[in-house]
């Protein structure tokens, strides 16, 4: 209560700084990989085509996670840690500096080496986001193809919007519920204050620790808010991206 109403929005700046580059990398990479892989499998191994969204989504998410992870780390810490005594929580850059500040280097190499702490918990992030993307796209693609197929050749921007939002909502809800334990493990690793211990933590040992402390309930801590956020988020991002693509294709048609 001391921190007031604005605590509910802690980490918003980091979330915005993270969302734009992540989506900017993730969605176009997924599109490119899916199209290339579908073209290859359709001609050479048609039985593998249904698995293309799973592989393309996993690869694209891995690239986006690795590229933008330091901001994700800052966002998680800003949301988890209490405000400073002055009442003003640190920003993204100050939070990241705080991650490497306790680690002193006696040489240039050691000083540069300490920046690896900005990727603390990356393994946990990948172990959550890669399965999330695999489940999400494997569920999303068939749903939206079926919905768009019902509209036939007369699909409009509204149809594209509705199909993608509905498919994204269902896929995001399912994927977020299944991967909730991995999200709990990721968060626990990211908020670990001891840098040396943080580097030694693994997703497996963290999950076992959570299980010992809280059992099944501990593994699914926060599943309600996570599902409530992920479903609409995936629906909004995918539908907006696809509608923009649809409009651009109408204005600048390419010859097949």
Automatic annotation (TrEMBL):
GO terms for biological process: mitochondrial transmembrane transport. InterPro entries: MCP_dom_sf, MCP_transmembrane, Mtm1-like. It holds the Pfam family Mito_carr. Coiled coil: none annotated. Keywords: Membrane, Mitochondrion, Mitochondrion inner membrane, Repeat, Transmembrane, Transmembrane helix, Transport. GO terms for cellular component: mitochondrial inner membrane. It is found in: Mitochondrion inner membrane. PROSITE patterns: SOLCAR. Gene3D superfamilies: Mitochondrial carrier domain. Solcar repeats lie at residues 1-36, 48-146, 159-247. It is a multi-pass membrane protein. Belongs to the mitochondrial carrier (TC 2.A.29) family. This is Mitochondrial carrier protein. It comes from Glycine max (Soybean). The gene is LOC100785809.
